[in-house]
Amino acid sequence: MKTASIAWALALAIGAGAAWGAGVGSPAKNYRLYCSGCHRADAAGNPGVGVPDMRNRIGDFVKVPEGRAFLVQVPGTSQSPLDDAETAALINWVLATYSARELPPGFAPYTAQEVAQLRAHPLVDVPGQRARVLQQLHEMGLNPG
Fold it and tell me: Is 0.85 topped by the overall pTM?
């Protein structure tokens, strides 16, 4: 009887997981599900282990094309189970929520089409590309972290 109960509970959990799927809700909910485990609920990250603080910084990345691409191409974003539209909405939400002041005038929100194009070219050297983007931003007089 106990084995049957465990099997039933396991079947329900698997079925619920399959039904749940990706993109289960709003960008805020998707952030909690897919990003906060590393970047923390408040986007403070964990810089000691290579997870950057996004607060008041991430908006600077969209000031250069390579930085804009980087936000989609990092493995956590490019390989997430969210579809392209959900990913665009999530990135736009993160930018508006945690770094709105840093967004450039006339900021164009990410689109599903842009996300799809950028995901097709994943990063090979994430630390190297991040360093190159940061160097460009430093040369512009910005200090995004």
Answer: no
